[in-house]
Amino acid sequence: MRKLTAALSLLMLAALALPAQAAEVAMLDWRRALMETDAAQRSMSELESRIGGQQQQAQSLGQELQQMQQRLQQEGELMSEADRQAAVQEFQQKGAEFEQLRQQVIQAQQQAEQQFLQEAEPKLEQAVDQIIERHGVEVLVEPQGVLHSDRDLPDLTDEVTQVLNSLF
């Protein structure tokens, strides 16, 4: 992914250095192209099925923590010291459990994303090369890298997604 990012950055700098009339300039949102592929959607569905239970459990625990916090704020002064301490201890215990679940979900998401990007990088490069050749693009920029253009730049993102779908 670093090669692709570096190449896109170089292309963006070249686009700024060259007048737009001297080169065929196009735009590509490579992140969107990847994430809209069928393979990315399958990967996200697989991840959801793997960690969906943990996400639901974390969400339920988060709601329970909010209710406990409200109860402690509203009724804490009326509780006996022992009851208040027990409620605070339970709140802290559930808070730690919530944080652990949250970290597991985040880690699983990051690992799945990294695995998908490693698998997709060569295919993305191949798809981008095909589209560049097909359109005779001399300069390819990311949408976030375009500071100004007097004309609408061709957006090749959907076309790259289509080629990626055929490669996965």
UniProtKB/TrEMBL annotation:
The annotated regions of Low complexity compositional bias extend over 66-77
Q: Which UniProt keywords apply?
A: Signal
> Where does the signal sequence lie?
1-22
Q: Which domain of life is it from?
A: Bacteria
SUPFAM superfamilies, A to Z: OmpH-like (SSF111384)
* Coiled-coil intervals: none
Query: Annotated region Disordered: where?
Result: 66-86
Family according to the record: Belongs to the Skp family.
Tell me the PANTHER family matching this sequence.
Answer: CHAPERONE PROTEIN SKP
Name recorded for this polypeptide:
OmpH family outer membrane protein
Source species: Halomonas flagellata
